[in-house]
């Protein structure tokens, strides 16, 4: 089947946002006088848990606290997370977060080729809106046909819910879509939804188990920043991932599926 849509994660995939998220958490903790400080290694470990509120709750549960104190802190999780979101969106709107290499180029190519674009992220709508407007201005929201965010589904990644929601809104089956992710949880979510997936890890996710990825690259690449060892490694056309290469990979994927039916 012909690929008709690209479905992209946001945090770590469109932009390496995690350091801004970590600093925003710490600012919120400081303003609320909680006495917490998440180091980079601590935050990297917590990223195994999908969702900001869920990370805060897990951090509280890990602490050896009296039951009454733990219960009181857990009740404040929505308040803590709301302040963190305010801090983060302010940072994003001020242009403090850059898109990852090759993202803008690939999305422009996809649009020019007639592909539809969608977002499937477990972050909040406010975080997505702030990043898109900072990166693309007024056309940020118009660039994507569908924006599916975490508050719209019951189960977050690695459950497939968010990708199923995006595909339902697109009106497309998984065979006509390609997913883009940066994390093991994201890959598991996309694969559970039946999607062939391109994975581009960051510092926060590198070294994770990405078995099952259709394509694993350090980034999407650009003329100004080509992917080392390409073409000739995983890519054959250029040292960056282009739409024509994606279409070729999709054709190969479909050929493999057809062959599997008869063997």
TrEMBL record:
Keywords: Hydrolase
InterPro entries given in the database record: CbbY-like, HAD-like_sf, HAD-SF_hydro_IA, HAD_sf, PGP-like_dom2
Keyword Hydrolase found: yes
Domain of life: Bacteria
Record-linked SUPFAM superfamilies: HAD-like
Classification via Pfam families: Hydrolase (PF00702)
PANTHER family: CBBY-LIKE PROTEIN, XYLULOSE-1,5-BISPHOSPHATE (XUBP) PHOSPHATASE
UniProt protein name: HAD-IA family hydrolase
Native source species: Aquincola tertiaricarbonis
């Amino acid at each position: 089947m012909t690929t008709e849509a690209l479905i992209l994660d946001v945090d770590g995939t469109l932009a390496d946002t995690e350091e801004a998220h970590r600093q925003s958490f710490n600012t919120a903790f400081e303003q609320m006088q909680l006495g917490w400080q998440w180091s980079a290694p601590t935050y990297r470990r917590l990223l195994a848990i999908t969702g900001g509120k869920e990370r805060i709750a897990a951090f509280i549960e890990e602490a050896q606290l009296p039951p009454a104190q733990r219960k009181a802190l857990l009740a404040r999780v929505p308040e803590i997370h709301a302040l963190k979101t305010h801090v983060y969106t302010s940072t994003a709107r001020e242009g403090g977060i850059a898109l990852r290499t090759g993202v803008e180029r690939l999305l422009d190519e996809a649009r020019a080729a007639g592909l539809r674009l969608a977002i499937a992220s477990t972050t909040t709508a406010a975080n997505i809106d702030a990043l898109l407007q900072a990166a693309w201005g007024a056309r940020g929201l118009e660039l994507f046909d569908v924006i599916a965010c975490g508050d719209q589904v019951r189960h977050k990644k690695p459950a497939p819910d968010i990708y199923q929601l995006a595909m339902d809104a697109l009106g497309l089956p998984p065979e006509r879509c390609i997913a883009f992710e940066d994390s093991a949880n994201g890959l598991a979510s996309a694969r559970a939804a039946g999607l062939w997936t391109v994975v581009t890890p960051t510092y926060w996710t590198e070294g994770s188990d990405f078995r099952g990825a259709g394509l694993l690259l350090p980034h999407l690449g650009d003329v100004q920043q080509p992917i080392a060892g390409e073409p000739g490694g995983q890519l054959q056309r250029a040292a960056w991932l282009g739409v024509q290469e994606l279409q070729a990979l999709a054709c190969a994927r479909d050929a493999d599926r057809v062959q599997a039916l008869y063997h």
